Amino acid sequence: xxxxxxxxxxxxxxxxxxxxxxxxxxxxxxxxxxxxxxxxxxxxxxxxxxxxxxxxxxxxxxxxxxxxxxxxxxxxxxxxxxxxxxxxxxxxxxxxxxxxxxxxxxxxxxxxxxxxxxxxxxxxxxxxxxxxxxxxxxxxxxxxxxxxxxxxxxxxxxxxxxxxxxxxxxxxxxxxxxxxxxxxxxxxxxxxxxxxxxxxxxxxxxxxxxxxxxxxxxxxxxxxxxxxxxxxxxxxxxxxxxxxxxxx
Amino acid sequence: xxxxxxxxxxxxxxxxxxxxxxxxxxxxxxxxxxxxxxxxxxxxxxxxxxxxxxxxxxxxxxxxxxxxxxxxxxxxxxxxxxxxxxxxxxxxxxxxxxxxxxxxxxxxxxxxxxxxxxxxxxxxxxxxxxxxxxxxxxxxxxxxxxxxxxxxxxxxxxxxxxxxxxxxxxxxxxxxxxxxxxxxxxxxxxxxxxxxxxxxxxxxxxxxxxxxxxxxxxxxxxxxxxxxxxxxxxxxxxxxxxxxxxxxxxxxxxxxxxxxxxxxxxxxxxxxxxxxxxxxxxxxxxxxxxxxxxxxxxxxxxxxxxxxxxxxxxxxxxxxxxxxx
Lengths: 248, 325
Fold this sequence. Notes:
The complex is a heterodimer. Chain A is α/β, with parallel strands linked by helices. Helix content of chain A is 37%, strand content 24%. Chain A has 10 helices and 10 strands. Chain B is globular, with a radius of gyration of 21 Å. Residues 313-325 of chain B have low confidence and may be disordered. Chain B has a domain at 28-236. Chain A binds chain B through residues 52, 54, 73-75, 78-79, 83-84, 86, 90-95, 99, 102-104, 106-109, 112, 115-118, 120-122, 136-137, 139-140, 143, 148-149, 151-152, 155, 160, 163-164, 181-182, 185, and chain B through 175, 177-180, 182-183, 185-186, 189-190, 192-201, 203, 317-318, 320-321, 323-325.
């Protein structure tokens, strides 16, 4: 088996007396789509934020492509090929869809001074248009992102995560608040991107149908610790998971 | 539509600025020069506040640093251009340093940090007589002579100020159109997301302060030879609030906002002088009404009016592909 793209070892994070993440360890392989599920407050988002440098962990280590990223800032992680989406809508509402996409890629082009004196679009219009078309947002290219529907903004958010050609993308509840038709479109696009570019996904999601059909492996968290791990079918029939999360 | 209007507006504004002082008396030409100088200071604050979303109540202190540097150096024989550039560079560095608190505190806490800096500058300028002349200030500042152009008279100085203003505006236009401008807006709209997309938000925050402050320094480098006298009171907190008012009234985050905002703050009181004792009352009521009914400033008001003129029935782009999106 090739070296894991993401390796998390014995991660701990507390907020005062509350232990949000307790000794979580797992690996994610190249091109894998891993789901992280669990009830509210189980530590999924805290785990995400620790992996992505948004929160500093109390103990443990995180490696991306074999390099330790425990002390890296989110911007450094992005430059190492890690993209992410957020649970809450996280776009730039007063910019057009095209500008949102260009912004998502511009820091990976040339030097800082070069970007000041270079092209206004950092030479990314073509690439951004390709990504916009891939997510079927072509008709909204020049629309202010803030005026789009919730679901469309979710698609823009997802498209932005892919602009810098990442090797690993962490998706935090991509299906939240998205209607069924658009959800099917989002899932199909994510799977196509995964297949065509061999990108690794880690997905936090509450929508069981979505996560079971998208992911190849699932980890279940409860009270900050892993309680089960396996294929979607194994998780569906796991008694501990049914008791703790899925219900009878 | 706005792009087309901008294309028409730029030459129209330029022609207006060239023709505005012709036939006017010395005082009006002086006021117009003062307006352009405050526009430069407000353009800098507009970058820091309007584009990058970082509040600053210290812009007048940067005008002060630029003005004192330019005055002191030109009075010892330095050419204006070099003295001004040193003042601008000094403001850039001090602005960079003032940006560091912005990495830790936001909103009204940051406002108080910058307010304290402005007060600190005022106290230093007032108390360090050996350097600044204390409360008496510095008098007899010469206006620059550049090659064949002597700017000692009001009209040549106005055109000299206009030339510097155009260069400053073009530079700022270049910055806000570049990926840096996009990064500044990203910092304002969603700094956490911006950081996750690879933007070094610390560096961008510091740059927003540094560049904005440098524009304050440039304005100071022009105000010193315009007034030919500087004293600490000219750069006190009240003036920072006036520059903030220019940005907000004009429309924060709009490129042409400072031009309109500074016109309201500098030129409107002059235009209302015929009302004699009532002009400040009328001026205050106009500003209050504008802020209550149009918090996005005059540029925002313009956009709202244009939105009303546009066709009411526009085909929604997102319906073209049916319900799938």
